[in-house]
Amino acid sequence: MSDYQTLLSNFEALGLNNMREYYPVLLDKVHTEDLSLTSAFLEITDKEMKFQKEKKMERAIHRARFPKVKTFDTFDFDFQPSLNRTAVLELKHLGFMESKENIVFIGSPGVGKTHLAIALGVEACRQEKLTLFINCHELLIRLRAAYEKGTVERVLRRYARYELLIIDEIGYLPIQKHEADLIFQLLNMRYETHSTIFTTNIALSGWGELFKSPETAAAILDRMVHHVKIYKIKGKSYRMKHT
Ligand code: ADP
Ligand code: MG
């Protein structure tokens, strides 16, 4: 093998795949532009770092299990004038996570609650925060199954560890008393440690009924809304935009 080929396979063995790919181009540039060794190394390592960061982000987004990747760029704030654009865009800086605040998006179907929750989750992934998106119904199924298997403590601890947990669609399906207790335990573990984002179609005043018990609902709301930002979206469904 020539030195050139060995170098390329060294890049590969070190996991520097972008450097391996870009090296021939760089070599050309070194000759045509009379690039210094330091400049050449700087350029190729910068590229590799950018590439690795990109990959890392892609993996984080994949692991967060968003049903679909959505971003703020594609959110039409003009369509939802009840929503304070500046306040919502401020959330991108994740200050709410620093202060362990929760976020609730309330509104009827189609107003963009899930879109905004995912957009924030994607931002969190970009900023290397361990993130998980889960539908409330699915979360309850998993918690109940774990409870029946006797592993609920461990599973709760796993969900409690995410730096950002997005619980989507609270209130779309009925919640049993026992399930409400499991949600309470989870929120209690996350309380003042990590932020949680909730989306719901039910005003907080209706949660007593949703959780079948005013006491459990009060305990959940207490953990949830002690440090919280609530966004009520009062507009029309985006799905009806063209009808
Ligand atoms: P919700 O969770 O409130 O029921 P979604 O966030 O699922 O609503 O929105 C329904 C669909 O409409 C999604 O495809 C979403 O991306 C899109 N959508 C909703 N609101 C907006 C908006 N203001 N700008 C762009 N797309 C939107
Ligand atoms: Mg939704």
Question: Mind explaining what this structure looks like?
Answer:
The chain is of the alpha/beta class and 243 residues long. It has eleven helices and five strands. It has helices at 3-13, 17-33, 37-64, 85-90, 95-98, 113-126, 136-149, 152-161, 177-190, 207-210, 214-225, and strands at 102-107, 131-135, 164-170, 195-200, 228-233. Strand 3, helix 9 (177-190) and strand 4 form a beta-alpha-beta unit. Helix 2 (17-33) runs antiparallel to helix 3 (37-64), helix 3 packs antiparallel against helix 6 and helix 8 crosses helix 9. The protein is elongated, with a radius of gyration of 23 Å. The relative contact order is 0.14. The mean pLDDT is 94. The protein binds adenosine-5'-diphosphate (ADP) and magnesium ion (MG).
Compose a concise summary of this entry:
With 243 residues, the protein is α/β, with parallel strands linked by helices. The protein has eleven helices and five strands, in the order αααααβαβααβαβααβ. The structure holds adenosine-5'-diphosphate and magnesium ion.
Give the SSE map.
Blueprint: H1 3-13, H2 17-33, H3 37-64, H4 85-90, H5 95-98, E1 102-107, H6 113-126, E2 131-135, H7 136-149, H8 152-161, E3 164-170, H9 177-190, E4 195-200, H10 207-210, H11 214-225, E5 228-233
Parallel strand pairs: 1-4, 1-5, 2-3, 3-4
Helix pairs in contact: 1-2, 2-3, 3-6, 7-8, 8-9, 9-11
Bound molecules: adenosine-5'-diphosphate and magnesium ion.
Residues 70, 74-76, 79-80, 107, 109-115, 199, 238-239 line the site of adenosine-5'-diphosphate (ADP).
